[in-house]
Each structure stands twice: as structure tokens, then as C-alpha cells.
């Protein structure tokens, strides 16, 4: 497999340099995966716009989606990043591990979301009627369903980019799941 180096600020377009500067100001660093998007003149800005779009979902719900999808796709980078973000959003280590397995027994609504995300991702866009019914029965709306699918798509893009490039993970490694229920 070809080796991808993480591009430096000097190696990217002027537009991407401005984004790097904003990331540096806001986060204190430019995550390697974001830098990798900058091989394209437009992908980094497009991806950040997608990731930061307004949504009917709360931050914790978006992290559930990110963790479940990244676990199914076995993306070490996204699992590490979203384990850190999950903690920042108030999840415990044990809750994060459970979410990654596609469940959230500590919250019925989150559980329905995690199960829906796991099912639709594993079944390549075709969830079972039962998980869809449970998603709505838990209180989610059609708007939430659309926004959930947009977040799944967002995470698939990053999972695929890391899978193809294998750039170094610059977040603390996520712990391994003892048993991945897939």
C-alpha cells in the first residue's frame, strides 16, 4: 500500500492553509486526518462544513453515531478521536465501550439510536423494520432519521479516508473491545 504522509501547512493550498490556521487556533493543533483531507483543495472545507452543519441531533447523539460507525468500520483513528470527544461530551469509559458495541443500556433513547445505527451500517443502508420502529418509538422523528443518516455518511467518509491512507493516529488510542458484536 502506498504511504501517505500527513501534509504540512506549507504543502497545502492557500485556502487550506487558512483552515489549518483556524484549526490551530480553535483546537490547538491540526488533527492528522483533517490535514489529510487537505491533499484536495476543496475536501477539507467541504468536510468541515458537513461535520459542523446544524442538526436536530444533540452532541451526545452525534458521538453515539460516530462511535458505532467507526467500530463497525474498525477505524482506529476515528475510534480514538471520538472516544476523546465522547468523554468531553460526558460519557464514561464504560458507556463508550458499550456504545461501540451498538447498545446503550444506560439510556433507552440512546439505545434505540445505537441499535439503529449499527443495523443500518452493517446492513449497508437497509435497516430492519424493527430497529426503525424502535427508533421512532424511542421519540426520534423523521428529521432525526435524516440527520442520523447524514452523520453516518460523514463518519463513513472519515473511516474510508483513514482506511485508505493509514495516517498516524494523533489521539490517545481507544481501548479494544473484548468482543465486537457485529
Characterization of this structure:
With 182 residues, the chain is mainly α. It has helices at residues 14-27, 32-37, 43-51, 59-72, 76-88, 93-100, 108-122, 129-137, 142-165. Helix 4 (59-72) packs antiparallel against helix 5 (76-88) and helix 7 (108-122) runs antiparallel to helix 8. The longest helix has 24 residues, at 142-165. It is globular and about 50 Å long.
The helix/strand order is HHHHHHHHH
Query: Helix tally?
Result: 9
Q: Structural class from helices and strands?
A: mainly alpha
Number of strand segments? 0
CA-to-CA gap between the ends? Answer: 27 Å
Pick out the low-confidence regions. Answer: none
Proportion in helices: 55-70%
Mean pLDDT over the residues: 96
Tell me, briefly, the overall form. Answer: globular
Key phrases:
182 residues, 9 helices, globular, mainly alpha
In a few lines, what is going on in this structure?
With 182 residues, the chain is mainly alpha-helical. It is built from 9 helices and no strands.
Could you give the topology of this structure?
Blueprint lengths: L13 H14 L4 H6 L5 H9 L7 H14 L3 H13 L4 H8 L7 H15 L6 H9 L4 H24 L17
Amino acid at each position: 500500500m502506498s504511504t501517505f504522509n500527513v501534509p504540512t501547512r506549507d504543502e497545502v493550498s492557500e485556502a487550506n492553509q487558512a483552515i489549518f490556521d483556524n484549526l490551530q487556533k480553535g483546537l490547538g493543533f491540526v488533527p492528522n486526518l483533517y490535514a489529510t483531507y487537505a491533499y484536495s483543495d476543496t475536501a477539507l472545507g467541504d468536510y468541515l462544513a458537513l461535520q459542523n452543519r446544524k442538526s436536530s441531533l444533540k452532541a451526545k447523539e452525534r458521538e453515539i453515531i460516530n462511535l458505532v460507525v467507526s467500530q463497525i468500520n474498525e477505524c482506529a483513528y476515528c475510534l480514538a478521536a471520538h472516544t476523546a470527544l465522547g468523554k468531553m461530551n460526558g460519557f464514561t469509559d464504560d458507556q463508550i465501550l458499550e456504545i461501540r458495541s451498538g447498545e446503550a443500556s444506560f439510556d433507552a433513547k440512546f439505545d434505540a439510536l445505537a441499535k439503529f445505527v449499527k443495523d443500518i451500517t452493517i446492513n449497508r443502508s437497509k435497516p430492519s423494520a424493527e430497529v426503525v420502529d424502535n427508533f421512532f418509538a424511542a421519540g426520534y422523528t423523521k428529521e432525526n432519521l435524516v440527520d442520523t443518516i447524514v452523520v453516518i455518511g460523514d463518519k463513513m467518509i472519515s473511516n474510508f479516508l483513514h482506511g485508505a491512507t493509514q495516517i498516524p493516529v494523533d489521539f490517545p488510542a481507544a481501548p479494544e473491545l473484548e468482543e465486537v458484536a457485529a
